[in-house]
Amino acid sequence: MAVANGWPDEKSTDQWDNLRKQARKLESELDDKLVAYRKIASGPEDSKDGTEACIKDLLKSLQHVNTQMQAWVSNGGSHVLSHTLARHKDILHELTQEFARINTRAKANLEHAKLLETFGRSNKKKDPENGQNGDSSEQALLRESANISRTSGQLDSVIGQVRATLSDLNIQRSVFGDANSKLGLIQSSLPTVNSILASIRRKKSLDNIILAIVTFQPVLMFQILIEGQQCGRFSPCKGQAKEPDDPRTRSDEYWSKVAEEPGMSLEKLSLFMT
């Protein structure tokens, strides 16, 4: 059986679904048969219509399906499927116990009816002249037995309703368990997704910084070049004397700085001063 991340593949899922359908069908048939058997067992007569044998066969079939589901889960089923199998086992156990209770009650009713019949016969034999009183006592006992049987049947009906409600609650619990498992898988994958998104954001920020540096570098070089050209053409650079527009307004300090410049001779200095 192929399993990936705790979830079976499509073919294995179909096999599991078929087993679950068989189990649900058998459980539904057993519920119907037990209701019919409960009505039969409530009376004093012996039930020989084959209902008891049919219920036994259905219980064996359901046990076989549960065994197959157990083998399927043991070969790599998920935790959720284990909960589903446990629920089906609980239902099988409850159905088996219910059948045992009804069967015991049916046998008790049959024995009770036989005792009443034996008591009535012996009473008639002991008092043949007062048969009316004997019949009256027997009828009273039969009425009491019928009342007890009706009460027992009503209790069985209430128990059946409670079992049906419990089955619905188990189904809802299984659905919520599946939902919680899927939410757990999503939550377990969220840290990985957050880590990937954080890495993408860091890389994007780094790319923006590199792009800003690459874009600003030519602008800076161009600005430096422009300032250098302006310094050479229009204004003296740092350490050079500023030449006045009119040579006659040049001060002695200016001529002393010009004389200190490298390569300046007396001939050049005299030419500048004229």
UniProtKB/TrEMBL annotation:
The keyword Transmembrane applies. The keyword Transit peptide does not apply. Keywords: Golgi apparatus, Membrane, Protein transport, Transmembrane, Transmembrane helix, Transport. It is a single-pass type IV membrane protein. One of its GO terms (molecular function) is SNAP receptor activity. Signal peptide: none annotated. GO terms for biological process: endoplasmic reticulum to Golgi vesicle-mediated transport; inter-Golgi cisterna vesicle-mediated transport; protein transport; vesicle fusion. GO terms for cellular component: cis-Golgi network; Golgi medial cisterna; Golgi membrane; SNARE complex. Pfam families: V-SNARE_C. It is found in: Golgi apparatus membrane. Belongs to the GOSR1 family. PANTHER family: GOLGI SNAP RECEPTOR COMPLEX MEMBER 1-1, GOS-28 SNARE- RELATED. This is Golgi SNAP receptor complex member 1. It comes from Marchantia polymorpha subsp. ruderalis.
